[in-house]
Structures are given as C-alpha cells and as structure tokens.
Amino acid sequence: MEDAELRREFLGDIFERYGVTAVLNGHDHYYHHAEHGGTHYIVTAGGGAPLYETDAIQPETVKYQKIEHFMRIDVGLRETSMKAIDINGQLIEEIVVNRRN
After folding, report:
1. Which domains does the chain have, with CATH numbers?
2. CA-CA distances (angstroms) from residue 87 to 46, 47, 66, 69, 82?
3. Bridge partners of residue 39, in order along the sequence
4. Pairing label, strands 69-75, 22-25
5. Cys bridge to 36: 57, 60, 94, 97, which one at CB 3.0-4.6 A?
6. Both ends of the chain: CA-CA distance in Å?
7. pLDDT recorded at residue 97
8. What pairing do the DSSP bridges indicate for beta strands 69-75 and 79-86?
9. Is the pTM of this model over 0.70?
C-alpha cells in the first residue's frame, strides 16, 4: 500500500503537470476508476484470468466492480468518451473528459 501511494504521488504530479486527462492500465483483474487532480485513473483488466477483489478502496475511487468487461473509447476533437461495458453488453460506467488546453 505504501509503495502504491509513493508511485501515485510521483506519477500523479507528472500527469497533472502535463495535463494528462486519463490513464488506463491493467494487471489487476477488475474494473476500477479513480479521479484525482483532474486525471482519471482506470484499471481495466476484467478478462482473460480469474477476477479478484481490490486490496482497498481509495478515497479517490469513483467506481469499483469485480466484473469481466471491456472498454469502448471514442476520441473527439473536444472530448473523449470512455465506456466500461460488461460482457453482456450492459454499461458499467461512462466517463466523458474534456480536452485540456
């Protein structure tokens, strides 16, 4: 947990400084969306291996679900829509981020 907090502090500063709106990563087998400092952090790894629970819900957590899923991302000139969709086609969450200047 302490190691994760150090990484988040270091990388979060870089992401905020350079106006990163969203970070997508995998490895942990669930769906997790957190938001901090204007940056959305999304863990999307709900397929290909057994699912498991998160270590701990963080204060920045917006949505967490232990579910098989995929992401549909539509990138536009002014905004990007990211949809987390379960394997039955049901919407888990939609995140719309506006382009930063």
Report:
1. 2-98 (3.60.21.10)
2. 9, 9, 12, 5, 16
3. 36
4. unpaired
5. 60
6. 33
7. 94
8. antiparallel
9. yes
Q: What CA–CA distances, in Å, run from 47 to 23, 41, 42?
A: 19, 18, 15
CB atoms within 10 A of CB 18: 9
Q: What's the token pair of residue 72?
A: 């549909």
Instruction: Tell me, letter by letter, the H, E, C secondary structure of 29-90.
Output: CCEEEEEECCEEEEEECCCCCCCCCCCCCCCCEEEEECCCEEEEEEECCCEEEEEEEECCCC
pLDDT in tens, 63-95: 999 999 999 999 999 999 999 999 999 999 999
